[in-house]
Amino acid sequence: MLKLQLYFSIFLLGLTLVSCHEQKRADVSFYFWKTVYQENKTAQMYLDSLDSKKMYIRMMDVDAGDAGPVPVSPVTFKTAVPAGIEVVPVVFIVNKVIQNQTHQQLDNLAGKIVYYVNGKIKQAGKTRFEELQIDCDWTRTTRDNYFYLLTRIRANPSLKNKKISATLRLHQLKNQAGSGVPPADRVMLMCYNMGNLRKYGTQNSILDQDELEKYAGKNLSRYPMPIDIGLPLFSWAVVFRHHLYTGISRGLNLGMLKDHKLFEELESSLYTLKQDMPALALKAGDEIRWEAITPENLESAAQYLQQYTITNPVNIIYFHLDEKTLKPYPYETLEKTAALFR
After folding, report:
1. Which H or E element spans position 218?
2. In terms of residue numbers, what domain contains 148?
3. Environment class of residue 49 by beta-carbon count within 10 Å: exposed (0-12), middle (13-18) or buried (19+)?
4. Where would I find the beta strands (DSSP E) of 23-162?
5. Helix, strand, coil percent values for the chain (each to nearest 5)
6. Per-residue confidence of the chain (342 residues) as pLDDT tens digits?
7. Residue 9: inside a domain, yes or no?
8. pTM of the model
9. Is 17 within the bounds of a domain?
10. Of 144, 188, 143, which is closest to residue 165 (Cα–Cα)?
11. How far apart are the first and last CA of the chain?
């Protein structure tokens, strides 16, 4: 009898340990950040291979117009989003737009945003959506207006029972006291664009592991709402003239930079243009910093973040679903990165 009681106690202890170590789940999603949506075989293969059921589609930017905030660069749907994919509409709000708005003006803006999103969802071939995401790099001076806008958006009758999520920058994650916590159901931590883009040198401003570790860590597990993780898949060419930042050249790629007739490689990731390229508004002597994310960069960031991520399930959202952008990243790389959170 004593042995039976002992075995039963061990069995109960085993069940307790299993329940305390619940299997973590990490779902893979993608952002779509282009102005024209059209079904693409390559994109669909990534969605299928990674068992992705959700796509975060930027519907529009909201910027300042002559008569107030206006939609800018809205997405156009040439084809419907596949039936098996849930659409999360995303609206990017330029911070200055809400700087000096009254509550009445913000009420009006909230109504227009929801109306516009509902229309775009129909154009995407969907009858409904479950979540609306608002993207804004709010500051101390715009925080109150931004948070008020979020409350007015979520109070819209057409969004009843729908979730509101907000993007979160690393500085907002760390500085809760100054930045505040947005009135949302969950946040998406942007683990990219974290370095000083305008600073001359060989650093990578898209994803800097040292910067990531300065801001994240235990701040992730202490945040008072679920946190999803956004990871970068993009690259770009940052242009400097006389060591001063002049912009990002969308026309350059790594193949061009490796052409020794056009560029001289100074050191890793830094190149000097040998001749004028008027079509790209570049001059001989301009220096180009090529910034890209390697699979090793992704895995290193994920390995660090997973130690502190307690959201379960967590969405791993790759930026973004574009054929050229995806090319350097096989399915296996993206799955391996996401699997680190499980």
Report:
1. helix 218-222
2. 23-231+296-339
3. middle
4. 26-32, 36-37, 54-65, 68-72, 76-77, 86-93, 131-135
5. 35, 25, 40
6. 545 454 444 444 444 444 445 689 999 999 999 999 999 999 999 999 999 999 999 999 999 998 899 999 999 999 999 999 999 999 999 999 999 999 999 999 999 999 999 999 999 999 999 999 999 999 999 999 999 999 999 999 999 999 999 999 999 999 999 999 999 999 999 999 998 999 999 999 999 999 999 999 999 999 999 999 999 999 999 999 999 999 999 999 999 999 999 999 998 899 999 999 999 999 999 999 999 999 999 999 999 999 999 999 999 999 999 999 999 999 999 999 999 999
7. no
8. 0.91
9. no
10. 188
11. 41
Q: Quick one: 335 exposed, middle or buried, by C-beta within 10 A (0-12, 13-18, 19+)?
A: middle
What amino acid occupies position 218?
A: K
- The answer to whether 37 touches 320, Cβ cutoff 8 Å, is no
Which residues are CB-contacts of 42 (< 8 A; sequence separation ≥ 6)?
Answer: 323, 326
Residue 73 is encoded by which pair of tokens? 């660069």
Rounded Cα distance between 193 and 169, Å, is 9
Q: What distances in angstroms separate CA 83 from CA 42, 55, 268, 319, one per listed residue?
A: 17, 12, 45, 22
Last residue within a domain, chosen from 291, 308, 325 = 291
The tokens of 236 are what?
Answer: 């770009």
Number of domains in the chain: 2
pLDDT at residue 67 in the model:
87
Q: How far apart are CA 193 and CA 33, in angstroms?
A: 15
One domain for residues 206 and 276: no
Gap between the Cα atoms of 239 and 248, Å rounded: 6
Q: Residue 245 and residue 228: Cα distance in Å, rounded?
A: 32
CB 22 within 8 A of CB 312: yes
- Looking up tokens 């117009």 gives 65
